[in-house]
From TrEMBL, chain A:
This is Peptide/nickel transport system ATP-binding protein. It comes from Thermocatellispora tengchongensis. The lineage of its organism: Bacteria, Bacillati, Actinomycetota, Actinomycetes, Streptosporangiales. InterPro entries: AAA+_ATPase (IPR003593), ABC_transporter-like_ATP-bd (IPR003439), ABC_transporter-like_CS (IPR017871), Oligopep_ABC_C (IPR013563), P-loop_NTPase (IPR027417). GO terms for biological process: peptide transport. It comes from the Bacteria. Keywords: ATP-binding, Nucleotide-binding, Transport.
Automatic annotation (TrEMBL), chain B:
This is Oligopeptide/dipeptide ABC transporter ATP-binding protein. Keywords: ATP-binding, Cell membrane, Membrane, Nucleotide-binding, Transport. It is found in: Cell membrane. Its main location: membrane. It is a peripheral membrane protein. GO terms for biological process: peptide transport. Residues 10-260 form the ABC transporter domain.
Amino acid sequence: MITGTAITKTFRQRGGVLGHREVPALRGVDFAIERGGAVCFIGESGCGKTTLGRIIAGLETCDSGEIVIDGTPMSGLSPRRRRPYFRRVQMIHQDPYSALNPTRTIHQTLRAPLALRARQTGRPKPWIDARAEELLALVGIDPGYVLPRYPHQLSGGMRQRVVIARALTMDPEALVADEAVSMIDVSLRLGILALLRRLREQLGVGVLFITHDIATARYIGDESELYVLYRGQVVEHGPTETVINEPVHPYTQSLLSATPVLHGLERPGPDRIVPTEALDERHGDAGCLFARRCPLATERCERDRPVLGHDPAYPTTQRHACFHPRRRQVIPLAAGA
Amino acid sequence: MERHLTAPGVRIRGLTVVYNTPSGELPAVSGVDLTLAPGTITGVVGESGSGKSTLALSMLNAVQPPGRISAGSVEIDGLGDVVRLRGEELRRTRGRKVGYVFQAAQNSLNPLKTIGAQLLDLGRSHDVGDLRALVRDARELLGRMGMDGARVLDSRQHELSGGMRQRVGIMFALVLDARVVVLDEPTTALDMITQATILRIIREVHDERALTTLVITHDVGAVAEVADDLAVMYGGRVVEHGPVAEVLGAPEHPYTRGLIRAIPRLSGDLGLARALPGRPPTLGTLPAAGCVFRERCESSLDLCRTAEPVPAARAGRTVACHLPGPHAVPVKRKEYA
Ligand SMILES: Nc1ncnc2c1ncn2[C@@H]1O[C@H](COP(=O)(O)OP(=O)(O)O)[C@@H](O)[C@H]1O
Ligand SMILES: Nc1ncnc2c1ncn2[C@@H]1O[C@H](COP(=O)(O)OP(=O)(O)O)[C@@H](O)[C@H]1O
Ligand code: SF4
Ligand SMILES: [Mg+2]
Ligand SMILES: [Mg+2]
């Protein structure tokens, strides 16, 4: 189990004439990934998704807050002692093209981490190649075909499967999949999503799935949780199907409304809203972070910051950070219905 | 309806484009007939490698070696056959008569010059008399796409995010007031809200200026809302072409059906969605005879191995498939309920 508590991270950026400016990428984010569980983080670009993924994978440190892996808080450990913990969290990047070394065959790519793994666990040499074949079969590709080939000889979908197989060489407890299907042909995305689902079920691997395409989050398997991130704050959190079908935060509703309607098959949800203004990081920090773009914002929203929780006056399954929660049917309906 | 009087029609006939490869010249686009009705937006969809970008380049007679247009014509009202244009005449056509954003346009800006300087270069090379008006138009277009136009014109490529660059590309395609506009993957890799904003603007500008527009994408969702017509490409052929809601609602070609079933969706039964089996073809792996899709087709006949299906009119559209239509096992609406 991996948990994060009150994770914050602020970047200092060089801002031309304005000198330096501070960009709060994460403003106190809490989450928990159970063994074999799945949590999805969604939001526009620039909302802090990648930063969070990198912190969970140990590729970046947080300014404050705590990451706990299997009961061990990371803050108390030296970077060297942290390493074996973070090895249990493997990151899968968006771009399967640049993730693999173009000068190495897939066999060479898998052999190196497996040799390390064999030393760590005292396994004999022949285990290495057997395991490489086993992992490729597990991710759904023919080892005989793939092993001798170079990355450029494989399709995008196959390459992403190889990247996943490489992540599995470390026997991870969790995978951080950052936009892992965004660069793959739409026709092949469900195949990769089904694979992640299978890894959860068969190996008990936890998945942290980061995406800007909310529809893909539905395919990550049962009992997944959805976190909606806006400018570094979680603004809605609950079971994936609940948040998609009965979203209460206007930002979640904007995101869902932006998903295209497949005319002929679907018609727009009756409450669909059009987001007004593009995200601008220079928007002020007073009040609700979404107030500047929110069609429902009131004076109170401009002044106070809503915190993630429940509203006793409007009971919901999910938690949200909005003063005016209301369920809205924004996702498409079947054309005939 | 006035726009229908002024927007130009485009007729592509028998278009074949070949690339020179180690195994000789192989066709990436094969004998394509495609009519873009004046004043419509046509979406061209298909997996990577299906020939979409090659088709887009042909619309400007801009196929580069090792490729060449080996047969066919691209007739544009008021311009004639673009395939026959040469030299100065061709140069003036590109941008001024046919606006375009090529795939990966986000990386095609000059890194050393500001966007504004590049805009002036473009204006001068097309003998635009009133450069001030050009800058004003550019600022206005950028403003509508949610950006601070003046600031963007003062920026260099590296100061803009991927989404901003993509919008700058679209501005360049529209600013010279071309009447035919070709957009190759204009929203790929953008988040949903940015995509929705860009698509809305494409539609608005298209309507205001009486354009005939071609939008190319591997993601059906990205054109489902914006396009009037949909052309589905596979292995260098247009396999189905018709009104968007009809093609999506009741696809005739087995490839179209598979493509639609593979889209991750916000509503509908998760179990019925699945990735398209098999791999998209490459130039070298296309079958030499019969239907190009037969190896991945779930309903192929003996005939499909020997004879290539000829595009024929049926069910209010054009379909290239040997199966008798309307298809015996139509996609049940229920699948998407
Ligand atoms: N290394 C960095 N240096 C400075 N700013 C950064 C850095 N990484 C991310 N940021 C900023 O932090 C914010 C969140 O970025 P990111 O985590 O990449 O968001 P997302 O993955 O949701 O698009 C953005 O404003 C981004 O510009
Ligand atoms: N410069 C080139 N040299 C050789 N083959 C090419 C070249 N450009 C494209 N192709 C091949 O032509 C086919 C169609 O490519 P393209 O038009 O880019 O398809 P799409 O845009 O649908 O992905 C692909 O098989 C691709 O590999
Ligand atoms: S708190 Fe106010 S501004 Fe923020 S999302 Fe809710 S209604 Fe909109
Ligand atoms: Mg990111
Ligand atoms: Mg292309």
